[in-house]
Amino acid sequence: MKTATKSTPRTAASTSRTPKPKPLRKQPQSKSQAAAQGGMFLFTSDKWALAYFNSNDLHCEERELFG
Which of 52, 45, 48 is nearest to 67 (CA)? Predict the structure, then answer.
């Protein structure tokens, strides 16, 4: 007498290999080097805020009044 056997489907976790860890890189000591290495292209200081909050500029007055 033949019996039906049920095959269990393989899951992705059982068939995938564990990825190799990336080698550690030395972390940069300056913020600008870290930003360039990480692909960030924004300012790493607050120099932009000096022009943004210039009290002699009407745009600044609008920001303070309506913001």
Answer: 52
pLDDT in tens, 12-39: 555 568 888 877 777 778 877 877 777 7
Residues comprising the chain, all counted: 67
DSSP 4: -
Instruction: Give the position of tokens 């009407």.
Output: 58
pTM, two decimal places: 0.30
Q: How far apart are CA 54 and CA 63, in angstroms?
A: 11
Question: What gap in Å lies between CA 61 and CA 2, rounded to an integer?
Answer: 88
Alpha carbons 18 and 21: distance in angstroms, whole number:
9
